[in-house]
Amino acid sequence: MTDHVYEIIEITGTSTQSMEDAVNKAVVKADASLNNIRWFEVKHPRRRRRWQGQMLVARHQARLHPKR
Q: Is the entire prediction scored with pTM above 0.85?
């Protein structure tokens, strides 16, 4: 069995729609800039909420660690 060494890359996706949308945006960006991504981990999902006038606005963030 051979040993493996991995490079850790972090990409953060954001969205006002949903956490899933934030993850998808990060995956699309990773796919466009990195070759041969087979796995990724979602790390540190965060959600920020604030009032904007009469409306509660949320911003979702998800950090990805893609693996080749």
A: no
